[in-house]
Design brief:
- There is one protein chain.
- The chain is an alpha/beta fold.
- The protein has 3 domains: 4-77, SH3 type barrels (Roll); 98-305, L-asparaginase, N-terminal domain (Rossmann fold), CATH 3.40.50.1170; 313-425, Rossmann fold (3-Layer(aba) Sandwich), CATH 3.40.50.40.
- Helix content is 25%, strand content 24%.
- It has 11 helices and 23 strands.
- The protein has helices spanning 11-19, 125-131, 156-171, 186-196, 220-233, 325-332, 353-361, 383-391, 401-414, 418-425, 440-445; strands spanning 27-32, 35-42, 52-57, 62-66, 72-77, 98-103, 111-113, 118-120, 140-145, 176-180, 197-198, 204-207, 239-244, 251-256, 260-262, 271-273, 280-283, 286-289, 304-305, 313-317, 337-342, 365-370, 394-395.
- The strands form 6 sheets. Strands 9-6-10-12-13-14-17-18 form an 8-stranded mixed sheet, sandwiched between helices.
- The longest helix has 16 residues, at 156-171.
- The relative contact order is 0.09.
- Bound molecules: glutamic acid.
- Glutamic acid binds next to loops.
Length: 448
């Protein structure tokens, strides 16, 4: 199948490439302003201009040639289709714990096509195992592809599918589960699984990478080895999210699934525990617990699966000048829950009050988390907060907006009864509420 339509090229460049029957990966010759460039046609870089043709020269350098009327372009050779031979699966050691690695997509499950420079989501869980052969010394690894998606394309449907798949493998008796996932929405998935998989007998660790697994600078191997080690042997049995602890490739930290957030666009230590402490660290193949408050591993525990999430829940971020018609819009569309991302201790403008009252009167569950992220909502301090409470808005204490949103989706996936849903929303299911606000300096330091 031709890749030229999806290559990002447009206008005269696309016309010329099609006219010359060129596809991505073909060898082309471009003549412009008396110079001739010959090399492999590669896709347009994400932020590049669509009318500049990019050629990977023999030297390895990429050259961009602006396509004008005088430019000549011809195909001089057919490209060989990119192939990826799966590395051999390492030998299993029967004395080691049994861990299943599920792959869902994202950078950790991607590889670079070095010929064209593009990153493709094409590596299966068993390829991952082959790329990181050290895993064979850590666990008996079994692999499974659940889906292959960039995490921005994951919805409640995939959370349900994933929770059900994990439950099935746990019921079969594995010692731990690792889920390879894109980092963009990995924390939403870890929160979703935390609510959907209750009374876990073994750990479930979601893991990602900021650089694909076949790049020399990849963080995938360290993250994956650490995650598999924790899944197979750690004494806790909760949903955790494992990534680099610092920018160095030394060790990983496992955050609690409901208390973690992606905080940096590109750093390897992008994930931070928010309003809570990490559960464990893994360094030099040693698991060290970071807290004594955790659910314990116990193979006798019977997993409780509650995999349903409502799709009729919206997040409304308050900002100066927010038009309350946005709240009315969701109510008219039949939404069952609205999470307000309020300012400071838990406020939205008085201009939104009538719309909120209308929403509550229609049976919509309206909850509030603070956009400050750090700290706890306290709606008893100022009139605004008290007014909102009197309308029936439910404060989510120290839950930051993403976890609050996932919890609201989960709660409304369990019941349509507003009072019951409110009660469930305020019940601590997976460590999303702690008894007291932890000192922020300690949290920022990442330890007790
Ligand atoms: N945006 C993609 C995702 O979240 C790739 C980024 C990543 O995995 O870090 O799946």
């Amino acid at each position: 199948m031709s890749q030229i339509e999806d290559s990002g090229y447009e206008g005269e460049a696309l016309r010329l490439l099609k006219q010359a029957d060129c596809d991505i990966g073909d060898i082309i010759r471009v003549s412009s302003k008396g110079k001739v460039y010959e090399g492999i046609l590669i896709p347009r870089p994400e932020l590049g201009e669509g009318t500049i043709v990019i050629v990977k020269m023999k030297s390895g350098y990429n050259v961009g040639i602006k396509v004008t009327k005088d430019v000549k372009l011809e195909k001089v050779g057919k490209g060989t289709k990119p192939t990826f031979a799966s590395p051999p699966i390492p030998k299993q050691n029967p004395a080691l714990p049994h861990v299943v690695i599920m792959s869902t997509g994202g950078t950790i499950a991607s590889r670079v096509d070095y010929r064209t420079g593009a990153v493709r989501s094409a590596i299966s869980a068993s390829d991952l195992y082959g790329v990181v052969p050290e895993l064979a010394d850590v666990a008996r690894v079994d692999t499974e592809i659940v889906f292959s998606l960039y995490s921005e394309n994951i919805t409640q449907k995939q959370w349900t599918e994933l929770a059900e798949t994990v439950a099935k493998r746990i019921e079969q008796g594995v010692d731990g589960v690792v889920i390879a996932h894109g980092t963009d929405t990995m924390a939403y998935t870890s929160a979703a699984l935390s609510f959907a998989l209750q009374n876990l007998p073994v750990p479930v660790i979601v893991v990602g990478a900021q650089r694909s697994s076949d790049r020399p600078s990849s963080d995938a191997a360290t993250n994956l080895i650490g995650a598999v080690k924790a899944a197979g042997e750690a004494p806790f049995a909760e949903v955790g999210l494992a990534m680099h602890e610092t920018v160095s490739d030394i060790g990983i930290v496992v955050h609690r699934g409901t208390k973690v957030r992606k905080c940096h666009t590109s750093r390897r230590d992008t994930f931070k525990s928010i309003n809570g402490f990490p559960i464990a660290k893994v360094k030099d193949l040693q698991v060290t617990m970071q807290t004594d408050q955790y659910q314990h591993r116990d193979a006798k525990k019977k997993l409780v699966l509650k995999p349903n999430f409502s799709e009729k829940v919206a997040l409304v971020k308050f900002y100066p000048g927010l038009d309350p018609a946005i709240i009315d819009f969701y109510v008219e569309k039949g939404f069952k829950g609205i999470l307000l991302e309020g300012s400071g201790l838990g406020h939205v403008s008085k201009f939104c009050f009538d719309a909120i009252k209308r929403a509550v009167a229609k049976g919509v569950l309206v909850a509030l988390a603070s956009q400050c992220i750090w700290g706890r909502v306290n709606m008893n301090v100022y009139d605004t907060g008290r007014d909102l409470l009197s309308f029936g808005v439910v404060p989510l204490d120290e839950m930051f907006p993403e976890t609050g949103l996932v919890k609201l989706m989960w709660v409304l996936g369990q019941t349509d009864e507003v009072e019951e849903a409110k009660k469930l929303l305020k019940t601590n299911i997976a460590g999303e509420f702690s008894l007291r606000t932890l000192p922020q300096e300690k949290i920022l330091e990442g330890g007790q």
